[in-house]
Specification:
single chain, five-stranded mixed beta sheet, three-stranded parallel beta sheet, 8 helices, binds glutamine
Length: about 230
């Protein structure tokens, strides 16, 4: 490969747990849609990398200081972030959902969160949304998904607000039969891969993403991890 900064092994940050985009499988290996999509992109570009799972709120600072070369973590493209990091073209469309315990009859929408306790993740679009739209009594911000969901399951919060595909996955797995989604899909948003400002990887990754969309690789990964078509 032709020299420059890209000749070195890239450090690629991902969230510790954001299924089905990234999570540890039963053998302890990190896998998921983001992980496999990135691997296909890296092969396409011809770069070597080390995966670095970390709390989501550390990824943007790590890109800003240049300790990380890439962040792929179901990260929403938003203007405030685009001022400090560069984003690839969007690769997944999502929104936010409200999750409550199955027997909760009092919460039907974001308006009903008035005076309630809401659990979500630190430094995410859900944290922004709760602060702007929910008149909650308390917003508990956790560094990872496990603590965020546990707070609802153990009665420390009345609701979780979080990314729709992750909520759907939780309902299908750990939360099965114990939780339900209420209200509409809020705050439509697209995920992008993030880079330090000015990274020469951005055009290469966008070209690779386009190639993988054209040749069916992206669709196959999407179907594998979401059991549906984009
Ligand atoms: N999509 C959300 C955001 O970018 C959450 C991402 C995450 O928790 N990994 O803020």
């Amino acid at each position: 490969f032709a020299g420059g900064a890209l000749a070195a092994k890239l450090t690629v940050a991902t969230d510790t747990n954001f299924p089905p985009f990234e999570f540890k499988d039963s053998s302890g290996k990190h896998t998921g849609f983001d992980i496999e999509l990135w691997d296909a992109i890296a092969k396409q570009i011809g770069v070597d990398y080390t995966l670095q799972p970390m709390d989501f709120n550390g990824i943007i600072p790590g890109l800003q200081t240049g300790q990380l070369d890439v962040g792929i973590a179901g990260m929403t493209i938003k203007p405030e972030r685009a001022e400090v990091v560069d984003f690839s073209d969007p690769y997944y469309d999502a929104g936010l959902l409200i999750l409550v315990k199955s027997d909760n009859e009092g919460i039907q929408s974001v308006e009903d969160l008035k005076g309630k306790v809401v659990s979500t993740k630190l430094a995410t679009t859900s944290a922004d949304f709760v602060k702007e739209k929910a008149q909650a009594k308390d917003v508990k911000l956790f560094p990872n998904n496990d603590a965020m969901f546990l707070e609802l399951m153990t009665g420390g919060a009345d609701a979780v607000i979080f990314d729709s595909p992750v909520i759907a996955e939780f309902m299908r797995t750990a939360g099965k039969g114990q939780v339900k989604v209420v209200g509409p899909l809020y705050m439509g948003q697209s995920y992008g891969i993030a880079f330090p400002k000015g990274s020469e990887l951005v055009p290469k990754v966008n070209a690779a993403l386009k190639k993988l969309k054209d040749d069916g690789t992206y669709l196959a990964l999407y179907r594998k991890w979401f059991n549906t078509d984009p």
